[in-house]
């Protein structure tokens, strides 16, 4: 027991938690944007995966991590545009298209691995690129905390910066007000002159950009290589985080911290000799429980909204 706690209660564990939280938080904030427009974006997983592949393949070819990050964003935004086109213009079901996006990304990345590198499982050692860590100077000398936050990538800091930025956009800008109006009542928003399709399309593209950043962090933060299916359900965990957090900035961040911490602790438990299968199940068990709880909360919120609409309708006819 002491050995297990010794592995968990360290600066290294905290550093791993921050590293694990970043891609989940970025994807969850991206999904929260679409959720505000009343779109549950199941395609976060596929957008993260294609972003991770683009980050490694283009970044290693250019020999520049920044170029890799940019390529990840472009690739994920293109996939997001396909999602938006299919759902908003061709009226396909959001959930079905999201599943299709995930399957497309999984198959496409394996195909490109085989075509470009002759290996359908992983990129070769020649195709590696890492995001540099940011040294913090004297701050790194602070016990535990300083050691944990030192040499984290810029995308880790950007992930946490996205929380106040998301809050600002959502509550302090015209775009955010219109997006929330679309999510609350499309009919009323359209009557007020808001373009429903444009707002939803924009939110999907934003989610794609943030998923691209999430994929870049996932692929380039440590190993600097791409493995087929390396997202391993993190996109769905991000969906759980934003659902559990009701797509609110701080709540979504807290949920992402819980899921990221569970993932990091599972890794540390494996290193401490705890049954690896049990340890790997931990984040997904927490995800399922969180989704069940969030489902009850959402059902209650929808019921209250339906009652309010019926009351408003009665008041108009009276």
TrEMBL record:
<feature type="transmembrane region" description="Helical">
    <location>
        <begin position="94"/>
        <end position="117"/>
    </location>
</feature>
<dbReference type="Pfam" id="PF02653">
    <property type="entry name" value="BPD_transp_2"/>
</dbReference>
<keyword id="KW-0472">Membrane</keyword>
<protein>
    <submittedName>
        <fullName>ABC transporter permease</fullName>
    </submittedName>
</protein>
<feature type="transmembrane region" description="Helical">
    <location>
        <begin position="154"/>
        <end position="171"/>
    </location>
</feature>
<feature type="transmembrane region" description="Helical">
    <location>
        <begin position="6"/>
        <end position="27"/>
    </location>
</feature>
<dbReference type="InterPro" id="IPR001851">
    <property type="entry name" value="ABC_transp_permease"/>
</dbReference>
<keyword id="KW-1133">Transmembrane helix</keyword>
<feature type="transmembrane region" description="Helical">
    <location>
        <begin position="39"/>
        <end position="59"/>
    </location>
</feature>
<feature type="transmembrane region" description="Helical">
    <location>
        <begin position="201"/>
        <end position="220"/>
    </location>
</feature>
<feature type="transmembrane region" description="Helical">
    <location>
        <begin position="65"/>
        <end position="85"/>
    </location>
</feature>
<keyword id="KW-1003">Cell membrane</keyword>
<feature type="transmembrane region" description="Helical">
    <location>
        <begin position="278"/>
        <end position="296"/>
    </location>
</feature>
<keyword id="KW-0812">Transmembrane</keyword>
């Amino acid at each position: 027991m002491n050995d297990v706690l010794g592995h968990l209660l360290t600066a290294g564990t905290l550093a791993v938690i921050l590293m694990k939280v970043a891609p989940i938080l970025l994807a969850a904030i991206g999904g929260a944007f679409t959720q505000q427009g009343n779109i549950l974006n199941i395609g976060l997983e596929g957008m993260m995966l294609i972003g991770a592949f683009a980050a490694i393949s283009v970044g290693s070819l250019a020999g520049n991590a920044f170029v890799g990050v940019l390529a990840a964003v472009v690739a994920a935004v293109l996939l997001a545009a396909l999602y938006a086109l299919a759902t908003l213009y061709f009226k396909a079901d959001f959930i079905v298209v999201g599943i299709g996006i995930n399957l497309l990304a999984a198959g496409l990345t394996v195909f490109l691995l085989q075509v470009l590198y002759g290996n359908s499982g992983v990129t070769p050692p020649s195709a590696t690129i890492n995001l540099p860590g940011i040294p913090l100077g004297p701050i790194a000398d602070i016990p535990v905390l300083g050691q944990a936050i030192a040499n984290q990538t810029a995308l880790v800091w950007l992930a946490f910066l996205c929380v106040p930025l998301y809050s600002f956009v959502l509550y302090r800008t015209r775009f955010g007000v219109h997006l929330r109006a679309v999510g609350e009542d499309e009919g009323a928003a359209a009557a007020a002159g808001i373009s429903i399709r444009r707002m939803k399309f924009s939110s999907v593209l934003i989610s794609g950009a943030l998923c691209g950043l999430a994929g870049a962090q996932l692929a380039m933060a440590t190993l600097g290589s791409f493995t087929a299916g390396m997202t391993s359900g993190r996109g769905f965990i991000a969906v759980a985080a934003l659902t559990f957090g009701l797509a609110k900035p701080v709540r979504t961040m807290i949920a992402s911290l819980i899921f990221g911490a569970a993932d990091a602790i599972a890794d540390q438990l494996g290193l401490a000799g705890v049954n690896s299968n049990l340890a790997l199940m931990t984040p997904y068990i927490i995800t399922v429980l969180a989704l069940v709880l969030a489902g009850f909360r959402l059902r209650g919120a929808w019921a209250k909204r339906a009652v309010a609409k019926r009351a408003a309708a009665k008041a108009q006819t009276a």
